[in-house]
Structure formats: C-alpha cells, structure tokens
Amino acid sequence: MVDAFAYVPAIVALPFVSFLVALAFGKYLPKGGAFGGIAATAGSFLLSLWVLATVAAGGQHVETLYTWVSTDGIAGGIGPQEIELTFGVLIDPLSALMLVIVTLIAMLVHVFSLGYMNDEGEPDLPRYYAGLGLFTASMLGFVVADNLLMAFMFFELVGLCSYLLIGFHFREPGPPSAAKKAFLVTRFGDYFFLVGVVAVFATFGTASFAGSESFPVLAEHALAGEFDAWTPFGLEAGTWFTAVGLLVLGGAIGKSAQFPLHTWLPDAMEGPTPVSALIHAATMVAAGVYLVARMYGFYVLTPTTMAIIAFVGGFTALFAATMGLVKDELKQVLAYSTISQYGYMMLALGAGGYVAAVFHLMTHAFFKALLFLGAGAVIIAMHHEENMWEMGGLKEKLPVTYWTFLAGSLALAGIFPFAGFWSKDEILYEALVHGLNEPLLLGAWAMGLLAVPVTAFYTFRMVFLTFHGEPRTDVARDPHPVRWNVKGPLTVLGVLAVVAGTVNMVPVQKVLGIEGIDLLHLWLDGHYGGFSELTSHHYAELGPYSSGYIAGGEVPTVLIGAGVSLALALGGLGLAWKLYNVAEPAEHTAALGGVKTVLYNNYYQDELQVRLAGVTAGVASAADTFDQGVIDGVVNGVSSVSLVSGDRIRRVQTGVVTHYAALLTLGVTGLILVLGVLGGWFL
Amino acid sequence: MSVQQPSTVEPLAALPAQTGAAPLPEWTALGPVLALVAAGLLLLLWDTVFPNRRTNTELSVIAAVGSLAALALSGWYLAAGTGRPATGGAITLFAEAITIDGLALFFTAIVASVTTLVVVASRDYLTDHETPGEFYSLVVLAAAGMALLASASSLATIFVALEMVSLPSYALVAYLKENRGSVEAGLKYFLVGAVSSAIFVFGISLVYAATGSLLLSDVAAAFGDLGDLAGVAGVGVVMMIAGFAFKTASVPVHFWAPEVYEGAPAPVSAFLSSASKAAGFAVAFRVFTEAFHLGGEVTAVGIDWALVFAVLAVVTMTLGNFAAAVQTEVKRMLAYSSIGHAGYALIGLAAISAGGSHNGAVMGASMAHLFVYGFMNTGAFLFIAMVERWGVGRTFEDYAGLGTVAPMASVAMTVFMFSLAGLPPFGGFFSKYFLFAGAVFNGFWWLAAVGALNSVLSLYYYSRVVKAIWIEDPTDALAAVDSRPTALYGAVIVAAVATVVVLPGFGPVIETAEAAATALFG
Amino acid sequence: MVAPEYYLLLAAAVFCIGLFGVLTRREALYFLMSVELMLNAANINFVAFSAYYGDLTGQVFSLFVIALAAAEVAIGIGIILVLYRNFGVTDVTVPRGMRW
Which GO terms describe its molecular function (chain B) (predicted)? Predict the structure, then answer.
C-alpha cells in the first residue's frame, strides 16, 4: 500500500506551488491564477482526506525531514544538551483533522473568490491568489509542524501573509494601516512566543511535540522529579514552566485575538471578504488556539496557566460579544463574534476541555467561514455596501444566501441542533463540572454563559437587519445577483453547519446511554490512531481539575447545562426578533444608549425593554470605549512614547562636534566615577 | 618591538598548523594581511605608473583580487583548522605581538568579504572621479589594518593597528572633497576619533603603569595581583572601553556615527559600519577575554566587566533603535540602526559570567551576528550608494516606488531590511536567535528580552523602507533612474544572496564562531 | 628617584589640560594641539613606568605614539584644509549641516 504519510509534505507544497505559479505567471493565466489555486487546494484537500483515513485506520506519523542546525560536536554548544533544529511533520488525530478543515475552507474560499474578486473586476488578481496560496501553505506548514521552532516560523509566515492580504487594497487609506496594525499587534505577542521558544530549548533541549523525548513529556518527568530541567535563578520547575507557558501563550493570544491583543482583528475587516473568511475560520486566528491544543500536554501541567487561559478566554468571550451589539457593519459584527468564539475555545482549553475546544474549533471553522462568505455574497449583492441599515429584505432576492446564512447564524447562536450548539454546550459543560471545585474557573464559566444570550442577540439582530423587513435602500430593492461560484461554497458550508455537530453528541450519549456516538472524543483519544502522550485522556490525567456535578449527578448536570444555555440563546434570539424582525427596525441600542430622554417609545419597547436596551448599550459602549480608548491608547501610547523619546534622543545629536566631545567626556567620566566607586578604586 | 623576554611559549603553539603533508612556514599564517597589504601597495604603484587613466576598472579589479585572496586564505585556514586547538593551538608571531587563531581568521574573513563588496561597488560609484587610485589603496590598506587588529595580541600592536584603520578611514570619509556633507563628516570623524584614540592610548598607558607589560598574556597574569595600582588599572580599562566604543560606534562614543555614516560616500559608510565595527569587536573580544579576565573570576580591579558591557549594550541598542525610528532619511536611519546593532553585538561581551557554561556560545553568536551583519548592512548601504548615484533623493518619500524601476535591487533591499529586523527566514534571524538564546542560557534573559523588544521597534522603521519601495506610488524623481551600474548591482545582489544563503549554511558559520570564541575562554 | 605616583599625577594633569582644550577651543588647530597634549600625557606614563619597571617596552612604544600622532596631524591638516575650502572657516563648530 502506498503510504499516505509520504505525501504530507505535498499537502503543504501544493498551495506553495500555486503561490509561485500565480506570482510568476498569474498575468498570463485565465482568472489571474485562480484555477491553479483551486486545483492546488483541492489536491491538498484530497490528500488530507487520505491522511485522515489512514489515521482512522490506526496510523500516526512523526518524521524529521531536514536538520538545518545541529550542534553536534561544538564545544560548549547551545543549551543544556545537544540541540538540533529541524523541520519535520507530525500527523496525529489533531493535525489530520485540522489539515482537512484548513484545506476544505481554503478550497472553498478560492472558489468563492472567483465570484467575489474576478466577477467584480478587482485589479491585481495574481497578487491576490499568490497571497492566498502562500497563506494556505504557511498555515498547513504550521499545522503539521513537529516542533515548536518550526511552528513558530510558519506562525510568523502566517502573520506576514495576513499583512499582505489585509493590505491588499493598498491604494486606499484604511487597509494598509489595518494591515500594519494586525502585523504589529500580533508580532508583539510573537516576541513573547519567540522568547518562549528559546526558553523551551533552554529548559528541555528539544522542542518536539511528540515522542518520549518531547518537551511536554520531559516537563511531566521534570515535575515528577525524574528529569533535571534547567531553570533560571534556581526557580522551581513548576513556576518556571508556568512562565514559559505564558510566554508562548503570548503568541497565541496575539494571533487568536484574545484580550488584550484583540484590537487588530476588527480593523482587519479592511481586507477582502474571502480573506476574512480564511483568516477567521481556518488560518490565522485558528493558529493561536491550535498552538495551545498542540502543546496541551505542557499546559495541563501548570494550573496557573490553565486558569489564566480559561479566564482570558471567558472574559474575551463576553467582552467581545457585548461590543458586537452596537456595530452597524455586517463584517464588524462578524469580527467581534470571531473574537468572542475564540474566547470560548480558550475557555475550553483552560477548563480542561481539550476535546470541546477542538470540537468548537471545527464547527466554528465551518459556520464562521459560511457567515463570512455569506456576508461576502451580501456585499456583492449590495455593491460593496456593508452597513446593515442600508440593507433589509434581502431574503426573497437571495434565497440561497439567506438560508445558508441562517443556518450559520443558528449555529453561531448555539441553537439546537445546529453544529454550534453541540460544541458550545460541551465547552460550558466542561467549564461547569470542572469549575464547581474551582471558583476562578466558575467565574470564567459564568462569563461564558452570559455571553450566550448576547451572542444570540447580535447574531439575529444582524440576520434580521440584513435579510428581513422591508428593503431600506434602492440597492437593497434590486440587488446584484450572485453566481454558482458563490452559491456552491455557501451550500457546502451550510450543510456542514447543520450537521457537523453530530460527530460528537456527548450530551445524547450521556443522557440516553448510547455508546460510540462521541466520535470526536474517540478520535482525539487515540481510539483509531495517534500517540499515547497526545491523547485526551492522557491530558485529563495530567490536568489539575476534578469534576463536580450539580443536582445529584452527571445526567442532570448535562441536562440543566444544556437547557440553561439553550434557553438563554433562545431568549437572546427572541429579543432580537422582537426588536428587529419588523418592517422598519430602529436603532434601539445605539439610539437609546446615552440619550436620557427616550423619544422612541412609539416603537416596540415598554419600560423594561428601554431599560434593558439602555443598560446593554451602556455596557457595550463602555466596553467599546475601553477598547478604543484604553487598549488603543496603550498601543498608540507605547508607540508614541517610543517616537517621542526617539525624538528626544536625537536632539542630543546637535551637529556640533565640540558638544560630542563634551558628551563623550561626560560619558567616560561618568563610567569611571560609577565603576570607581563600585570597585573601590579611589580609596 | 619588545625587548622583554617573551613569556614561555607553549611548544605546541609554535607548530605550523596546516593539514597536509608539508606544513607551511609559520609566517604564512599572516597571509590574509599580507595579501591586503600587497594589493594596497600594488594599487599605489598602478596609480603612479598610470596616473591619468579615466577608468577605474583595473584599480577595482586589483583591489578585489587582493581582498578575495585574503578571503580565500582566511577561509582556507579556517577550514584547515589553522591556529585552532586541534592543530596545535594559536600561532604567535613577533614575540607574541600577533596571534593567529580562530577569532583572528573569522574576523579577517568578515573584513575581506565586506572589502570585496565595497571595492567592486566602488567601480561604479567612483566613475568620473579624478583620483580613484587613492580611494582604493586607502580602503585596502585600512582593511589590512582591520585584519591586523583582529590578530593583534599586544596593546602596542593593537594601538598601531587601530590607527592603521582610523587614519585611512578619516581620509575616506572626507573623500568627496567638494561635498560639504562629506567634509563635515570627515571633520567630525577625525576630531572625535583623535580624542578617542588619545583617551585609548592614555588608558593603555595606565594599564602599562599598573602591570608593566603590553602583552595581553602578561597583563592577564599581572591582573591577579595589582596591589595599590588596582584603581589605576581600572581607570585604564574604562578608557580602553571608550576606545573600543569609538571603533564599534557604541555608547558613550557613538556620537560621530550618525553624521559620518550619513555624510560619507555610501560605500565608505558600508565599509566603516560593517568591517570597521567588526574589527573593533574582534579586538574587544580578545582583549577582554585574554587580558582582563572577562568570563573569569573578578580580579583585584573589583569590577565584573560583563556588567559594564551589559549596561552599555542596553543603552546602545535602545538609543540606536529609538533614534532610528524617528529619522526621515534612509541613510541616517541605517546609521542609527548600525548603532543599534552594535548594541546587539555587545551582548557577546555582556552575557558572560564567571564559569558560565555558554560563554563561548554567546560570544560566538555575537561573532556570527557580525558576520551576517557584514553582508546585510553592506548590502543596504550599497543600495543607498546606487540610489545616490542615480540622484534620487535621500528621504523615505524619495524612495517611493523604486520597486517599479529597479525590481531586482529592490528585492535585495527588502531582504536586507527584513534580515536586519531579524525576521525569519533570513540570516539576521538566525544570528539574532542564537545570540538571544545564548544570552538566555547563560542566565541573561533580561538582556535577551531587551534585545527582543528593540527588535520589535526596529521592524517599524525597517518596514518603512520596504513600504516606500514597494507600496507607495512612484514619483517623478524616479526619472533619474537611467542607468544600470553593473558592478554596483552585482555587489548588492551578491550581498543579498549571501544574506539568504546563510540560511542553509548557518551551521558551519556558527560552529566556527563558537569554536573560535570557546578557545578564547579555554 | 621620583615616586611613580607623581608621574601619574603629572600625566593626568597634562591629559586634563588637553581635554580642557578640546572642549573649549573651537579653532581646529588648537583642537589638534590639545589632542597632542593628551597623547603626550600617555607618553609621560609610558616613559616613566618604563624606567620604573626597568623595561624598554614603554619607551619604544612612546616613539610609536609620537610617530602615529604625526601621521594623525598630517591627515588632520588635510581635513582642515578641505574644511576651509568648503566652509571658509577653520572653526570646528561651524559645520553642522547634519544633525538629529
């Protein structure tokens, strides 16, 4: 039998080839190189399916492909042991699954781009498809990386590609600055990551993810006292591992747009919409969560890191959701929802719900790609108008878009039985049962739960404003039609958004006792194939959490948890229905926010709704102010402090050479005096 | 020159160390220096015989052949293990006044590569100049001084070699006699340089007063017991630090650097900021490890020099990067960035601790960084030389759209900028990575952290260049781009290729550098 | 025999006088002379301690320093000459076209 694993490098190489082809010959190819990209990603997708099947048949694979630095034989070499810097591939259930997700989304985004970019007559298509190819290739390289350094390099490459793609429309003022912001903010996190990589090498002498010599395993042994890891200042191994974990987490927080490094993501909406879909669903933002999942065996060893991940995740979930309430542009709402949903995944990881996090990563990839592509379809139809208040009533004109978008929205809002319900429910369940013994985690769970109705509300506010009611502008009355290349991807993703949840129906299993329908659990637990130290039950054994139940047992906990979150989601949906599913909706939240005299009581609110809307709008605008004022303020502040101090420094350089001689003398004299006092030279 | 009895020479060290059947005579270890000196003299001769040639191609070829010969010789010696422990240890000549070891050969290779690039590029830069002969001979003789500086192991030879580098450099900076910027830069360089070398030689005199010798090994021995003169020796060492700081453009003697690099002809800026800086570091590495017990127990002077360098490194890199961020002219930005890189390289002296397990690794990484820096920084300045030759302006705005008219060179410049910023997968990333990693391993994680933060800031101003070249719309000024100076183009491309080829070839570089540095601590 | 610390003090005094001149004199030639003073301060040390240790190294090295100082002045005068041609002055504080 031909070995599927031998073709893993080809999965990464194919989109890279399409990047080269589009770059070199794109001008001469039909559609600016789009077909090459589609063929390459389709090829990668098929290979990924093959790899997935091989893993399902009990396979796993780790292989070093290329050693580019080896310190063998250097006197005093770097690190506590001999260190080799290598490139390699690691295929286990997690990476195989992620490969399929990334290649599928990338392929659909390529197809969709035919409709969004080519049909709309955008210029510079070869550059666009080249960027898309490189972006996909670097993400795939990141997914299959078998060590932290290689992961870091591809992680950086992903960031660079996002810079190129977000700034695609570089002739307009917005996109370049958004691209720069995305690049700088995520790089800020990446520098912590880099220091973390160095620290991992210093501590363990290796950065591999898998195998008995991998750093998570060595860390486990070090905590058990069986391995002597290097630590600075004689720190306890546990404390040092926490610090290392947090450093690497810096990169994940930047890329996955978690508080406080989330500010780049809403701005990144300046990029072309298919790129947003790719960034949000499968590549850049997913990279952060994937990184944490990839080295989860290391994180579960340090309870403090876990608690921080959970808390940051829960907080981000709620914080971003509240901001989504007041946005007027379609893509802005989706942007905040992305931040919020990745917050859920971080919450799951921090709460010990490894499978839940991966599950949500998967379902979110499908429905968020769907929503972005749907938004792209709407934007095509609306002639690149993105303000939802200019839309309305598109339901009849764009039936395919409407129904698929609705499926995606139901999934996002977590309504039974759509995909998002199952995964979000499992996250909240894990956080709850582990949080009953951990007050901090319970707080994170509470924030996650609170975010549920908010999510449902803004999601359906968006749906109703866009598709329901009466058309509010001429364009909305006569939208531009969309073609197969838009409808096709939407349909595929729409189906997935409905059914993807069935791969992991844990609540059903627990309540009804049907065994074997929690496929994803079995998958990630190594029941088919995989490495024993990378399985979910291994993580659970290492983890700091124990489970507690409410109302006397597992089944009631499951039922109550699912019931409460579903009820909250339905509540949010209902409120949105009441406020916005009308012929001529008004800007309740925005208008009622700061205004004391309520002029709009002839619209559908009684006193309660007014107060509710007022409070939520207040919170939302406070959050927004915080976001714009404080976070941006800090980022801008840091940069302007650097620039101002840079300006001060250069003013010293007066241009007069005598001043230089004086400063030089002062400097040397100062050194002599300070050192002389320290060294006792003048005694 | 010393009438003092040479201290006991290890018998092994006297053995010629070439592999192969017939060992070469010992003096051939100085081959790279001799090749450069010979080329310099030949250039003077050529200029005397053909004083009125309107073309400088022959001069450029002679200089390039000389520096390539030096590069080939030092590369061969490095590969053969000359002067390394495996082949009998360092070769000392002239009563220990000169030592040829891994460090000397490594830095000679850096100097020779930079010199080759500079002299090749100068062929086009200096077209139409009246007296190109003196330019080439000054460059090559200064390079000979740098190579000698890297192998000097007596304070006397160090001072002489330092002046051999400085004096031609002053003249080179002021080479464009009709250009006010060049003259102003030459004046400032000369005045600050004269003061610094006076301070430096006064420092040497104090060290001599305290120890009674100029040989590094004797100084090291005398530092064990200085008696009342510990303070004198301490002040002397600080003054010598000032001299090294001048050569390397580090705080507190960095003030000359922005103006000199900005005002000097761009190939000279490339030469000074890459080769001269590297040579300064070479001698600082040697002096502090061999004479002043860096990486050993604290001596009677009572100061851990690594700590001093740590402070200087932090201040230097921060100052260089912060000032670079607010520049409006590309060349001046690169000048400040050169100060910033001096700060990074200083980590090689700063992250050293007594008995630290990675002293050799850190210093070796710093050497490797200077090696990579030699290519990327020279390339960047040569790109500027090309722009100057075209007559396009000097500011970031003037660079707008250069990518449309000079795509190859612009790709090369992009490589230099990203490599200088330390982005993977270019050479600058690896060297910086090893440098910071070594610092972390040796317990100086905070130095690595400051370095990493500075790198973040540096990305800002380096990417401004890339943005201007590729993203901004071309202006009318680009009509001035009317020629393709072949040699200049070639040098820029070669430097870019070298910056990228370091990616797969980084193993040998870092191994050689670390082995050479470890030998110093041995 | 004079105690060596007096030589140290003398050298330091000459060095500081030179440094003072460097910092206060704007005329290029005075600047050069001041640098010469600083160099010769070093020479005092070399010669004095050469005698003190009974070792010729220092004396020989002081000759080197003198020779290098002469070479430095030669270059310096050349630069001052082009300075005068371009700026019309020999005041070292005048050229300040490049700063910040």
Answer: NADH dehydrogenase (ubiquinone) activity
